[in-house]
Structures are given as structure tokens and as C-alpha cells.
Amino acid sequence: MIDHFEIKVAAFEECRAFYMNALEPLGIELKWSDENAAGFGLSSEPNVRFLIEKGVSNSTCHIAFSALDKRQVTTFHKAGLSSEVALLTP
């Protein structure tokens, strides 16, 4: 079982704003943030499960978040699209 994971992002501020907006429909919120990193986790628990850190990644990364139902998937997708970031179709 994975406890948490971290990815490097070049456009840190934009990515933090994107994930704050897109993950909210899935019950995932920003737990903490500073100028170089941000941690996200389920609203129902104090733990950080997903971290982004300012930096350059040398590889691609695939991330899949769980949803309870199709409504959450649709809401998550719409929130992501409102951030003007290229997304896959759900």
C-alpha cells in the first residue's frame, strides 16, 4: 500500500492552484504549502498523501485519483478544465 508520493513540477504555483481546484471534488485538500512544496490529503484525515515540489523532473509520471462515482469524475474533470491545463478525457 502506498503511503504517499511526490512529484517535481517546473511551474509550481500553477500546479498548486490546479491541484487545489481539481482535487477538491474528490475530497482532497491542500494541507500545507510553502514557496517550494505543497502537500495534499483527504479532507477526512490529517495526513499528506500527495506532494508537489518545485523542480525539474527527468521522467513522465502517471497519477490516478480514486472517485466514489461518475459525478465525482465529471466534477473533477470540469474543475481541471477550468484551470486551462491539457487533460485526458475521463
From TrEMBL:
Domain of life: Bacteria
SUPFAM superfamilies xrefs: Glyoxalase/Bleomycin resistance protein/Dihydroxybiphenyl dioxygenase
Gene3D superfamilies per the UniProt record, alphabetical: 2,3-Dihydroxybiphenyl 1,2-Dioxygenase, domain 1 (3.10.180.10)
InterPro entries (alphabetical): Glyas_Bleomycin-R_OHBP_Dase
PANTHER family associated with the record: GLYOXALASE FAMILY PROTEIN (AFU_ORTHOLOGUE AFUA_5G14830) (PTHR35006)
Identification of the protein by name: VOC domain-containing protein
Organism: Vibrio parahaemolyticus serotype O3:K6 (strain RIMD 2210633)
